[in-house]
Amino acid sequence: MARIVSLGSALQDIYLIDHDDLVPTNIGDAAIFGKVIVGSKVDIDRISYEVGGGGINSAICFSRHGHEAVILGNVSRDPAGMAILKTLDRECVDTSYLKFLTRRTTGTSVVLLDSKSGERTILTCRGASEQFGNFETSDLDSINPDWLYVTTLRGDIDTLEKFFKYAKKNGIRVMYNPGVKELEKTKELAALLKYVDVLLVNKSEASKIVPGVTLAELLYHLNNYVPIAIITDGAMGGIAGNGEKVYRFGIYEDTPVKDATGAGDAFGSGFLAHFSSGRSFRDSLIFASANSTSVVGKLGANKGLLYGHEPLHPMPIQEIKS
After folding, report:
1. Is 13 left (phi over 0), alpha (psi -120 to 50) or beta?
2. Tens of pLDDT, residues 116-136
3. Domain residues of the chain, as ranges?
């Protein structure tokens, strides 16, 4: 098994769940929770307290798979931070490198969830997870990881570059799933990809980095930057290439979505959890899809994460010959 460091956000997710007052109303191409009127009081069916964030979700996935999972993230010594710490301890994630900030609260998301459709709107106060500049590469010296898994650092290109360069110099492989803030800095982001071994983006994100219209075109260009590129495309599945083989894949199962939160994290961390265990590129893509499907079927961003030993059924996936 591998030693994997997750660098990313740590949040408490507070779910406000209702079956009728949060029904989406379409307005053009967008939708709003149409029955929530400003100034009114709305009765919610129930509340659920969960934890989430890219750092937490991925670390839990790696630990469940049997890897040595370490998280680098910021929290505070408040009830939300203690809830995060308790969950990570229960999931056997190494929390000794979590940093406790004194002048910020732990990042918190309020998730407005329509229990009928699974649609949700997320209100986030990132708090301690707003910044990552307090981390130094020396944190990795004693960990000596095999992989560094990085989700959004809120556009902190300097910290990304610092960690990516260190990883490259020290033989640590990097998987990266950039966020909105990094994708706003396209040129800086593209310059970092020479340090990345596996890049995960969706179709829209890929089109911001490289030219192309079809998934195949986007993948071709991304593979000039990184050895392994994975592009997801929602219900259409996705495409992935490792320089030797290209796979076009569908979704694992067409099942009702209870909560879409954490689907992307489940796919990315699921791929790496399987791949770093020595599984094939193809099998790792299948597990990633199954992991994501399992997560959206449960409430919370990580409750449905698989353990790696579950029997998987076949799914649409085929190798594309060049």
Report:
1. beta
2. 878 889 999 999 999 999 999
3. 3-22+46-319
